[in-house]
Amino acid sequence: MYKKTAVITGASSGIGMELVPMFAAKGYNLILTARRVDPMQKLADDLRRMYGIDVNVIPMDLAEPHAGVALWKTIKDIEPDIDVLVNAAGVGDSGDFASETPENIERMIHLNISTLTSLTRYVLPGMVERKRGKILNVASLVGFQPGGPGMAVYYATKSYVLAFSRAIRRELRGTGVSVTALCPGPTRTGFEKAANAEKTRLFHWTKPMEAHAVAHAAFEGMQRRRTVVIPGLLNKLLAVGGALAPSAIALEINRYLLSARR
Predict the structure, then answer these.
(1) Which residues are catalytic?
(2) What confidence tens digit (pLDDT) does each residue in 24-49 have?
(3) Of 134, 132, 46, 28, which is closest to residue 87 (Cα–Cα)?
(4) What is residue 2's three-state secondary structure?
(5) Number of independent structural domains in the chain
(6) Would you say residue 124 lies in a domain?
(7) Range of the domain at 64
């Protein structure tokens, strides 16, 4: 009996990790990848016992240059026919652009944009040829904003993911392949700590959603082949507001929210 295969990046924590058992419960074989091996390996062992599925773990730093092609070569050796690709790996950082280290900037661009784009390109032709497949790209609510002074590169990368996902979805109309962009608001994933954003007004004033709830909304939305998934009513309203507000005003508001509270 044919079993579908899902590739999930960023599977060691956060939304990516929460999505893994949802696919397993549907009988998907899994290929998981992230930098941290131990959380993925434990999850893989548990899911093999529970569901009798194949789970392959690929430890890889996806923020390195050319990580997308290196990952695809490894995936092909395991299973070249991919039914679902989940690009959940991502990273952020806060602070004025002029004070950011070039290394952090390059890693963020590689992980949030380059690897996501490259891996999608390698997986997509097979999906089109088989006339079936789903891609879920984790963007962000900030993708609807004109920019984020204080998190300039992060906001820009997530705007890219949203625009990229929408565009290739339109290109793929009629092929049997769908592309869904997940645009969550603040979520309890440890992102705020990793991004050095814990002290900003934005993260102090907002009530983050739980990662499991966001992952559930993403999984359901992807299954229904939706274009964009925005979990939470307030986040949906904020997305509309971000798209409609004059850019100059939105930029000033974002600068205030992304500055440290006193």
Answers:
(1) 154
(2) 999 999 999 999 999 999 999 999 99
(3) 134
(4) coil
(5) 1
(6) yes
(7) 5-257
